[in-house]
Amino acid sequence: MSSQLSKRTEGGGTGGTPLVDEMEGRSIGAVDERLEAADERFYYANPWKLIMWRFRRHRLAMISLAVLGVLYLGAVFAEFVSPYTATWRAEGLQMMPPTKIHIFHEGALHRPFVYGLGKTLDQETFKYVFTEDTSTPYPILFFTQGVEYKIWGQWPMNIHLFATTGEGAPPVMLFGSDQLGRDIFSRTIYGSRISLSIGLFGVLISFLIGVAIGGISGYFGGTTDEIIQRFIDVIISIPLIPFWMALSAALPRTWTSTQTFLAITLILAAVTWTGLARVVRGKLLALREEDYALAAQVAGASKTRIIFRHLMPGFTSHLIVSITLAIPVAILGETALSFLGLGIQPPAVSWGVLLQDGQDLVAVAQQPWRLIPAIFVIGTVLLFNFVGDGLRDAADPYSA
């Protein structure tokens, strides 16, 4: 037996059999081929793919992007996600605290349910106290029929993501109710439609203005650049909040919600394009003397083509990061204007309108759940900042 083993180990410089050496050689060769393929893949990848691969390595940014996707999806299908409409009222349930969700009834595991509510007046504090009637559980049903609505204001439907149904079933108010008995959770979801979309549209308009004016200023230079930069200095020198307030106060109160939305979007875009314009100007001043820009000019390319076809792609990644970081500013601007009563007006709903309803000391001291929309504002701003950080790191070739 020992002689057979010794024979099997002969012939290999490393002490292995020829078969083992061959298998090891194949595995090493396969690894080398995969490494070469990966190197070739990175070598021939365009800058956008490289940015995407680097961005996927930023876990916090990827998680933030997924959460933002959920928020925008909820805003698009707000009527379905919300158990009630924005104007629906629960009679006798004004200022109700958030509904408690239970899964155990009389010691046994149960599907998620809520108990019925009773309302009594505390004679010492003169506050209404809500108590649960634990005798009967009311299950929370998913994809069930409820309050009728019109999806996107067009097609009537009554299917909701979750709700309680049946005679005597109490409403499910995850964030409690306001002074009129309206569900704050439903109003928060409806409000995200305006607060989230106004940031996108406002930044899109300011982006187009900033890129156009900054491109003209940086490429042409001279007197054109001087006039544009002094105009930007004038806009930057104006205090932001008072300027917003002045423009918003000039809006007629007779306008519809759509007209007010468009006006607020233009107001936010009117003062947020200056920073981007100066960034574009600085980049074009540095790139317009490059060889490829001069070659395009000698070849007879138009100035518009040189700016947008040859120079802009050189720092497009920076522009994308700037857009991502500018969206939270627009969201905060709309929230501030609506909170001050100068932005979106009821019956339209936005996060700023909801915070305006809870700005008195009584709401802070006795109904803190009315300030829950502020968590959505803070969370959305942080999520956009995390995504912007991830894009910045992905676009920067020298980042770790």
Give the SSE string: HHHHHEEEEEHHHHHHHHHHH
Average pLDDT over all residues: 81
Number of domains: 2
CATH architecture name of the largest domain:
Orthogonal Bundle
Indicate the proportion of strand residues: 5-15%
Radius of gyration, CA atoms, in whole angstroms: 30 Å
CATH class category label of the largest domain: Mainly Alpha
* Strand segment count: 5
Strand order of the largest sheet: 1-2-3
**Major sheet characteristics:** 3 strands, antiparallel
CATH superfamily of the largest domain: MetI-like
Task: Using the coordinates shown, work out and report the CATH topology of the largest domain.
Answer: MetI-like fold
Q: Given the C-alpha coordinates, what overall shape results?
A: elongated
- Segments where pLDDT lies below 50 for 5+ residues? 1-15
Structural class comes to alpha+beta
- Tally the helices: what do you get? 16
Helix content: 55-70%
Alpha-carbon distance between the two ends: 57 Å
Short summary:
The protein is an alpha+beta fold. It has helices at residues 2-9, 18-44, 47-56, 59-76, 78-81, 184-220, 222-237, 240-249, 257-270, 274-287, 291-298, 303-311, 316-339, 351-357, 361-366, 372-395; strands at residues 102-105, 108-121, 128-139, 141-151, 155-163.
Structural description of this entry:
With 400 residues, this protein is of the alpha+beta class. The protein has two domains: 91-178, no CATH class; 186-395, Orthogonal Bundle (MetI-like fold). It has helices at 2-9, 18-44, 47-56, 59-76, 78-81, 184-220, 222-237, 240-249, 257-270, 274-287, 291-298, 303-311, 316-339, 351-357, 361-366, 372-395; strands spanning 102-105, 108-121, 128-139, 141-151, 155-163. Strands 1-2-3 form a three-stranded antiparallel β-sheet, with no helix packed on it. It has a two-stranded antiparallel ribbon with strand order 4-5. The longest helix is centred in the middle third of the chain and has 37 residues, at 184-220. The radius of gyration is 30 Å and the shape is elongated. Residues 1-15 have low confidence and may be disordered.
